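Objective 1.3, modelling of assemblies. Example input:
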Amino acid sequence: MHADWMWLEEVKGRERGELRTRRFEAAARARRAASLELSNRKEFATPHHGAVNSLQVDLTEGRYLLSGASDGSAAVFDVRSATEYEAGFIAKHGNILLVDKQHENGHKFAISAAVWYPVDTGLFVTASFDHFVKVWDTNSTQVVMDFKMPGKVYSAAMSPIATTHMLIATGSADVQVRLCDVASGAFTHTLSGHRDGIMSLEWSASSEWILMSGGCDGAIRFWDIRRAGCFRVLDQSRSQLGRRPPLLQNTNDKDHMDSLGPSPSTRSYSAQKRTSNSKKKSPDLRKSQNLTHGQMQQRLHPGLSSSQNRATAHYGAVTGLRTTTDGMYLLSSGSDSRLRLWDIDSGCNTLVNFEAMRLQTGKPLQLAVTEDPSLVFVPCMASIKAYNLWTGTTSQTFRGHYELVNCCYYSAQDQECRNFILAAMIGKFLCGLHQLQLLLKWKTMTSGTGFLQLMRITGVTKNSCTSVY
Amino acid sequence: MADRIEKKNGGSQALPLFRLRPPSPSFSHLVEPSSQWHTAAAEMSVWNYVVTAHKPTSVSHSCIGNFTSPNQLNLIIAKCTRIEIHLLTPQGLQPMLDVPIYGRIATIELFQPHNETQDFLFIATERYKFCVLQWDAEKSELLTRAMGDVSDRIGRPTDNGQIGIIDPDCRLIGLHLYDGLFKVIPFDNKGQLKEAFNIRLEELQVLDIKFLHGCVKPTIVVLYQDNKDARHVKTYEVALKDKDFVEGPWSQNNLDNGAGLLIPVPAPLGGVIIIGEETIVYCNANATFKAIPIKQSIIRAYGRVDPDGSRYLLGDNTGTLHLLVLTHERERVTGLKVEYLGETSIASSISYLDNGVVYVGSRFGDSQLIKLNLQADASGSFVELLERYVNLGPIVDFCVVDLDRQGQGQVVTCSGAFKDGSLRVVRNGIGINEQASVELQGIKGLWSLKSSFNDPYDMYLVVSFISETRFLAMNMEDELEETEIEGFDAQTQTLFCQNAINDLLIQVTANSVRLVSCTSRELVDRWNAPAGFSVNVASANASQVLLATGGGHLVYLEIKEAKLVEVKHAQLEHEISCLDLNPIGENPHFSSLAAVGMWTDISVRIFSLPDLELIRKENLGGEIVPRSVLLCTLEGVMYLLCALGDGNLFSFLLNACTGELTDRKKVSLGTQPISLRTFSSKGTTHVFASSDRPTVIYSSNKKLLYSNVNLKEVNHMCRFNTAAFPDSLAIAKESELSIGTIDDIQKLHIRTIPLNEQARRICHQEQSKTLAFCSFKYNQTSMEESETHFIRLLDHQTFEFLSTYPLDQYECGCSIISCSFSDDNNVYYCVGTAYVLPEENEPTKGRILVFAVEDGRLQLIVEKETKGAVYSLNAFNGKLLAAINQKIQLYKWMLREDGSHELQSECGHHGHILALYTQTRGDFIVVGDLMKSISLLVYKVAFNSLLDTLQQFYFLFQSLHWANYHCFSFGQHEESAIEERARDYNANWMTAVEMLDDEIYIGAENSYNLLTVRKNSDAATDDERARLEVVGEYHLGEFVNKFRHGSLVMRLPDSEMGQIPTVIFGTINGVIGIIASLPHDQYVFLEKLQSSLVKFIKGVGNLSHEQWRSFHNDKKTVEARNFLDGDLIESFLDLSRSKMEEVAKVVGVSVEELSRRVEELTRLH
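Predicted structure (tokens):
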């Protein structure tokens, strides 16, 4: 979009009010994201003796990086201030906190997910293959709470926007999503629907009640935790094409529908409905539907129609989920080596054809999205690829890791370390970059599964977009 | 380096403490606890008062409709945070209302709901508030019909500007605020707004949305850009019941790549005009497609001429006005036609008023009222300029010039953009332009006399001295020459002089009152003071004389048939200090009231005339004697003004019938006795208060305003309107008599120096009496667009162009300062530049040019190449500090062997994204980064290593015979460094920074906020010391381009306000504002006043003041703290008396005290 972006010209345009401030920011961010590069002046000294499975920078200050690794250890780093300097200018960031197997409450097996308490840095949560989810006090490095799960825990997530609940959503080898309440120390919900273990979980960015889960059964399910059952299953074959019938057809439909009964809404969930908790709309949701409109059947929850309930988002397991920060889109990665972009509102596959990639299949992947959102970062075997979110083209490939990459994190809060001494490099500013580099330095390891790759014909979605209903 | 090592040895780094808030679910994300004050006494600059000195003038929107009444046509103009309502009258535009809006106006729209006869105004603000306003004709104010919040959790705020549109049939309001969402606010049958809902819009990059006219269902047309940067339009019907879109009747793919504006065509033609950069296209539902090529231009403003939509005015980015004609046969469009009309300011909005009169609103230049003529003039233009409305925006840079060295700055701004660029000289107060002057010592009084009573011009100037009176008259050569008036007593001091009816002249001296004929100049009649008494003070009008002799005697004389008749005599208990009988009633020659000021009891009394009855006595309090009273009528309101010996002035509203005095107000104008005199300028009466701080008192909006005059000290003043010096004033200063004209009476005086190119950076050099600025001009040749950049030199007094230095091709001036260097007495202009090469996305080359002014020419002394754009320059301890791309670089000034100088880099600091703005103070440097907020750097010299270095190098130097040069100095060899001391870790995108004092720094950021940060020198841990603590946050709602220390008003050192440091800022919308750092107690008091005012002064559309002023950006929203909204506080003075009393009660002080304190504040600007 801004191929000819020139700082000086844009500053000039901004100061006379010609270039909108928001646009200035967006363009600057996009350019900086596009010019990400491996930093050679910043290093993270890893205390882990195994693959890093999870990374997150805290959401309040953007200063503390939390990592969880397959040796059962979790560590916190200060991204801002280096612990020492090598050769005077390479900033070395050592861990400022470490909990490993030696710790009295440490996890016995690999940590699959480590997340900050979204409100402040006083707590963090780790989930492990040892069937435990633990809540840690950061200052005392003690476990304040733990939850025993029925199987290996693959993922844990907390809603970054929640103001009325403190739930940790956990996905494990068991088929149920469990919600652990930090406030009470108890399980509050079990969400059933998946037919296999749950690899990835993501809270909605626009409603604190909406949770999305991706299972090994290839399904992505949407849950409203205030209601029973899942209210949507994403179907890779349902696209936006033809979602809005053309005018003429619609007028025919209208007559048809008018004869059927009062107020048959053609929409499934508008954003309005989801965010408002008006009760008068809920009966509407359960109303029997006009069969000519496929998507309406999705409102039949609990217990969506059996065919819907069987819909899949990916062939194989859903390994990663990430919403865009605007809360409008969901990205999913699957063991079919596909990345899909979903419109959350309608639940449609947007059919963005992400260029061929090879993804790890056997374990959860942590994807990252820029704030705009313009780029998605995907761990692709030993590299990280950045794709344009709207066109699906590869914009950059980050190489440098010697082994498989499991996770990446993009921090838009450009908290800079204090003593950054270099000039020539571009893109040195983003923590996203530090994370990329972090992964490099850590030489991420795989659990040893083969690089079996499920190849799919490109355009499979195209063929299947005709509605089956 | 040293600092770092020190730190390491200083002990292990303290581990940061993680914050833990109680895990209670009822926390709030938004409100942060306000921090505690540490050391109150030391910090002056924490508590800031922000006030607008010049309101926004850049016009973003305008619309036309029947707002105030069904049969009145109104023009409504949006100026960012203000709305102006004008009425169209045969005489022109008549302003009706000018109100602030608590928000930045994103869209305004007039509409007429069903069952209504007049239009409503819909306003949406950039922070997602909207309101619907109606005109209340009875109270002449705005009535809020509806308001609400349309923000969403979901979605990303659109980058292309918010869109707000109203269905032509008033079925719904449509808003595009977030990418991918279209918000609908439906109307019900009664025209009330219903609950809003969102509709998903698949098109992400929306450029424009409009409603189509004449559709059965509300239909929008969307202009958007796809992923491949191609542009298309698409239509959607809004299905209100289903809360969704239905694919619309038509769409059009692959339009002009520059298409950016949609113009819906009213029914019956219908359809839409799509304005591109090279083509204009008309489309409609019947698959009509008409296109016309145009000369490449970017058209962003349009105005519909005919209600049927067959003609439109289009304004492009070069200021050209075109007429677009839609030719049609009945209801079928047959073609398009574009005609050139002429040149205007670069239009941001065009409103066709009536009869060929058009309002052109502009953001880059002055807004205009133009008339479209039927015939072209000689230059082929159909446009005739009727009126210009001054616009200072965008103020890209400015400098404060204190020409008179009196502490009163005038601001010279780089205003406007493109061809409308200009310099504007903004000065507070009223200028007296001296025309003639003579040296005259000891003037005790000054009056002008006409040669006959009905002569429009003044003829004589009566100058009174301690023991004589001299008469000056205009001679045939229009020179002032001494003359004689035989009947007058020239051997004594004159107390008063006046033209009287029947062509007579009155002279009052200590012992007599003389009546002299104008024609014969001979004495006609005479009244002598009683023996043993002498006249102390006297006043007269055309037919009356009032005088006071010692002992409290008040004598009233009337002129009857060319005789002085003593009508009445009164004996008062105290001595009389001053009196006045200026006619304020119906009869201009006769007053029925007299005002008298008294010694001893310090009172002012009103007497009725001719019976000399005391009808009112007002005690002034205090111990200072009234020295001058004046009865006057300003804008039809009668006032009694009473000035004291200490420079204070009382004003009262006067009831002419009863003599009742109300609405007493006290202001301080100066420190010396004031004498009051009326004068008229351009047919309006004003009052001149002569004192050590001469002031013009005038009335605007029936409110008294005080504006100081650009003169130092005036003892006496009188009107002197002669044919040679029309509308002039005679002014007696300490040792001089001068005659001068007076500027237009307004608070801020603005002078325009048109450039026809855009000035970007300006600075003033006192020593050479010049101003220098960087500017550039767009050259639009047939295909290519290029810029040429210049450095230009101006005389600082006359603003005459002295010299121009053209920069290289692709070179662009980025910064300019005036500075001097150590070991060099000369003063230089330093200019920082950048080469903007087409293939680069960050400048890699620039220059620093050092100029000297020699004989009014810019002489290039030194040039130094840099590795990037020099965004900012600062004088720094006799050296030059430059911000070059990511780096801060310090240069020292070195003398070379041949006697010439060079800039040699000394040390630098990396670690910025783009160091755009820098300010320095002592050894400290504050950097405003593109996106990394504010950081504080410090310049350090490692002294301990200095001696070693010197010893080591000493022999080396000797052998190299370098030591012979006097450039051998400590500075050259010392190990110096610039290091970061602290920074603000918030991600603020800075737009300007300034240091308020050593500890507190102010910054403006990209989301229109202000913030202050404090250096934490005494913090306990390294971690805290390295952090600039945010101490103040405020949403200004304006994009600040520059802060500068200085003041627009004269600062009296002994007044309370004189001690308050102020910073001036300039914004894109043309606002000039003042930030004053208040003492803590005053801040606390005013904060209390502000919080009570919020309750009494409701925002237009019920928008909340608290929300408006809360610091807001993408990351956070927090309540404003340590900033006060001066505009709100000063609006206290506009309240009615009863409301003032209510406010005063809440605040807990008297109305007078409160008014005084607020009025004091208004003196800051």
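The longest helix of chain A spans residues 21-34.
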